User: Fold this.
Amino acid sequence: PLDLAVTPMRVLQDPLVGPRCRALFEDGGVDDRLLVMLFLMAERLRPTSLWKPYLDVLPSTFGSSVWFDDEELAEVEGTTLHRATVMQKKSLQALFNDKVKALVEELLHIDEAGSSIEVRFEDFLWANSIFWTRALNIPLPHSYVFPGSLDGQQIRTGEVLGDSDLTTQQETDTTTKNSSCDENSESHNMESIWVEGLVPGIDFCNHNVKALATWEVDSEGNLTGIPASMYLILAQAGKSSVETGTEIYINYGNKGNEELLYLYGFVVDNNPDDYLMVTLTLMFIIQ
Assistant:
């Protein structure tokens, strides 16, 4: 059920932090992506969080380049990956200092149990990585996305994290994790709105270019019996079942290893998408 997904709407409807998050969102103080990251940080740090069972099984560290130490980062010096990583870390640190730290502390102080907890940059780095490695772009009915007083309000995405090609790719990456249109639902019609969020369970699927499954949204509940739900469907023609213990993969898109390392923290042996991103300066293009 997508009611269990961590989306901007779920954050705004949260009984504890929802009212304050709603005010921040309506005032333009945060966009929908940052809203989810703030929520993840606050709920992970809050000892009484209802989301604790889910958050406790998520990774605590990542292999993506923004987590590299100085020695590891030096190994890729001179590459687009190095430039993008340095820019991203600098932007994230500035955003944390200028906005994130104070906002998360404010959310924690709503509950006495979290009032004395220290908020660190590593907490923001974790939430940022959780979002970008696990979020999906989900087609949902307009009425589901914009209930009540939020009806018609535009979704605002994308705190500026730099201008490199790899950072730009990150901004659009959640759209590439493969899905297929559900012909038994209305998730693909013109009234649907694409919302980025974490879907517990499906967000545990790893990447494979020969993915075993894709995901679909059943808006009306015609297949699952649960309106506004998500399910996996086998992607291989003629295959109706899999052996017990088989890992279910989805496809994150056609990405080279440089991009996979930057976005997700892994590389693929003998990657069929064997390419590197090269940045051409304006001076070079003119010449």
